[in-house]
Amino acid sequence: MRSNPTTGPAPALRTVVAAAGSIAAITLVARVVGFGRWFAFSHSVGATCVGSVYQSVNAVPNVIFEVAAGGVLAAVAVPLVAGALARGDRGSADATASALLTWALLVLLPLGALVLVGARPIAAMLLGTGCAGETQLGAEFLGVFAVQLPLYGVAIVLAGVLQAHRRFVAAALAPLVSSLVVIATYLSYRAVVPQPAAEIAAIPPTGVLILAIGTTVGVAAMALTVAVPIWRAGVRLRPRVSFADGTGARVRSLALAGFLAVAGQQLATLVVIRLANDRGGAGTLNVFMYAQAVALLPYAVLAVPLATAAFPDLAHALAVGRGHSATGGRAGQPGGSVGGSVGGSVGGSVGGSVGGSRGPGLDARAPRRAQPEVSLKAHTTLRHSWFGVLVVGIAGAALLAAVAGPVGTLFTLLDAGGAASTSGRTLGAMPQALAAFTPTVPALGAIALLSRACYLRGRAVLAGAVVGTAWLATTVLPLVLLDDGGADGPATLNFLALGSSLGLACGAVVLAFVVMQEWGASVLTVPWRPLIATMLGALVAGSAGWYVGTRFEDVDLLGALTLATVVGLGAALVLVVVALAVDPTLPRRLRQLRSPTTSGVGGSGVGGSGVGGSGVGGSGVGGSGVGDSGAGGRDPWSPS
To answer: Where do Gly residues bias regions lie (predicted)?
Structure first.
């Protein structure tokens, strides 16, 4: 049933739009609290022997889950359940959700048991820091962390089912609740362990239990946060292994794309853990994760919202273009579907953007065939989004370089292991590592947008393979250049950061070629003058911020925090001033990112389900929305 074009959007779209404000606020708070978790860890546990062992083995359940089921469940949960609900088949939706949950537990429970049984050899494989007692401590942690595997499965399936039912708030709250529990765990650990930098044998057993149980409770809290709304929504979940008729083949095809998107990243994670411990020594992995978290912040705040918002616009434009020519629109045509976008992640594994479109080229079941010509509107939408992602990515990289010095000092002063000679040297190299991470910011933004563009043209599997290979490529440089003759924390840290930037940049370039092949060679053409203006502004701002930020080393904790804030704001101001001096039209270009490019009156229609965009650490699917007008006339956003 269609909505009346004169009365507004369809109720389904109004539901998404009404929820978007609260979801955005919750997601922002969750990101801030999630980042604050690293400060809590640094202060309470720190770059110490215990910290290295904890972070190394705590990654094991998440890595196994993502490879075995995470990418699969994230790719299939929402589109299958949402598709059944769109057809009005509540029974099929519940049956599909039940089968997904059953299979998740059937796979993850035995894997959890294997982690429990093999805890000691797994710990020995990942560690190698030289800390006495590290393998035994790692095995003790894994004995508790093994419980996380089925909990992750429950959380991601139930979150997907909630999103399919258009109940988005609980899924957005889940990572916030989990982060709060984990922060409380770290602070409790510090309360009973006054000397976190002590040798492992000197750490009280109570402290070890607090870390192990508290972290696992954080995952359980994530699952519980989405379980209660499932019960209130009246979803009937029953054990079953068979999917609803006609969905089995689709599960397999969608699962392949999801698997490829995460397998490479998770394997790279294991390699990084081993290299950091073996080549860098105690604390190196912790400092690398601090630097990575800081580097991902501008990407998450600036690039992810833009790439996520672009996805439904692209889906909408493509769907409309199938019913209209590129030279003129016709009023009253049925629209495609476009979902809202809800970005975020649940504990690093329940990722997602809800939004998508069903139609030719999007369903992963469809055989590869000639694609319809891309409409002018879709072409222009992607070019606008590409320009925006480049601008915010370059700006984010400049700000990261500017604050690298004071942020490194902040972590050095805050960290519980900062006084140790080995960890102290590695923490001292954090500014250089942050500088090496700067290309990662625009690279990840490009991957987030371009992978979504590939999904919309029926190239989900190829996009997943490219992203997975890019993550594997991040390990090549450190594997080749790091010397295995002894622990060198600063060198290991810097090579890991450089490898990350190089691998992801290569992945972005390959995806760009794929997108140009699928969408047209000119789709990534952008106006050169505002782009050069942004690059010059970023160069001046980043260099000036780096110079000022690295001149003040003898400061206290409050001074480092103040310096980071002042330098960051100053760098942002310098970037804007220089960019506007070179190209005063830059603000107008950026405003056009969300401005209409076509005119006309479009019909409306309710969309079905489909594969959503898959970015790093998350994927999203399915949705509904309204149609739009046909594309007509010349693209007013000329690349000159």
So the answer is: 600-633
